[in-house]
């Protein structure tokens, strides 16, 4: 179990005790994309989706999801986030790129919150457009930056 910390002395899954850790500024950035038919992206950009402003609703859903990550992912700590931003950028001809940045000053990182924000934003796009395009794909959800805390900096692709 080397490298994994969510186990107690008996080898059972447990929430990590972070009470002895220093409070530091912690930031995580995650990215992903949702790929769709070019016609679907055109409808999103033209405001022709019957459920409303797809990118605006997905942005809000991602922010809300980051704030509720502890309710969705077992053993995640409930956190008082100081900032969450979610950006959705059309990438012609057939995708929407999603980036989430989550920040706090605390004793544990915010990687899961950033990854959750991206995933829920992508799922919201899917939900709002599925009537026209059930073949959409959510791809490449990944952590691209992490700073703060004992383990230091991480920079991914």
What does this structure look like?
The chain is α+β, with helices and mostly antiparallel strands and 157 residues long. It is built from 4 helices and 5 strands. It has a 5-stranded antiparallel beta sheet. Strand 2 and strand 3 form a beta hairpin. Helix 2 packs antiparallel against helix 4. The longest helix is centred in the last third of the chain and has 19 residues. The mean pLDDT is 92.
List keywords for this structure.
157 residues; alpha+beta; 5-stranded antiparallel sheet; 4 helices; 29% helix; cyclic pyranopterin monophosphate synthase activity; EC 4.6.1.17; lyase
How big a fraction of the residues is strand?
A: 25-35%
Helix content: 25-40%
The whole-number mean of residue pLDDT values reads 92
- Cα gyration radius (Å): 17 Å
Given helix and strand content, the structural type is alpha+beta
Number of helices: 4
Q: What's the order of the H and E elements? A: EHHHEEHEE
The outline comes out as elongated
Number of strands: 5
Sheet with most strands = 5 strands, antiparallel
Uncertain residue ranges? none
Distance between the termini: 27 Å
Query: Widest sheet: strand order?
Result: 2-3-1-4-5
Write the layout of secondary structure elements.
Layout lengths: L23 E12 L2 H8 L8 H14 L1 H4 L10 E9 L3 E12 L4 H19 L7 E11 L6 E2 L2
Antiparallel strand pairs: 1-3, 1-4, 2-3, 4-5
Helix pairs in contact: 2-4
In short:
Keywords: Lyase, Molybdenum cofactor biosynthesis. Pathway: Cofactor biosynthesis; molybdopterin biosynthesis. By secondary structure, this protein is of the alpha+beta class.
């Amino acid at each position: 179990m080397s490298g994994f910390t969510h186990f107690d002395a008996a080898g059972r899954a447990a929430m990590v005790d972070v009470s002895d850790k220093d409070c530091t500024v912690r930031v995580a950035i995650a990215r992903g994309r949702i790929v769709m038919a070019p016609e679907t992206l055109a409808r999103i950009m033209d405001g022709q989706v019957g459920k409303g402003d797809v990118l605006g609703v997905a942005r809000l859903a991602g922010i809300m999801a980051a704030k509720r990550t502890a309710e969705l992912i077992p053993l995640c700590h409930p956190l008082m986030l100081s900032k969450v931003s979610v950006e959705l950028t059309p990438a012609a001809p057939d995708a929407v790129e999603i980036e989430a940045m989550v920040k706090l000053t605390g004793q544990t990182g915010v990687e899961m919150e950033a990854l959750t924000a991206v995933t829920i934003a992508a799922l919201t796009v899917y939900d709002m457009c599925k009537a026209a395009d059930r073949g959409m794909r959510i791809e490449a959800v990944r952590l691209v930056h992490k700073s703060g805390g004992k383990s230091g900096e991480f920079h991914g692709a």
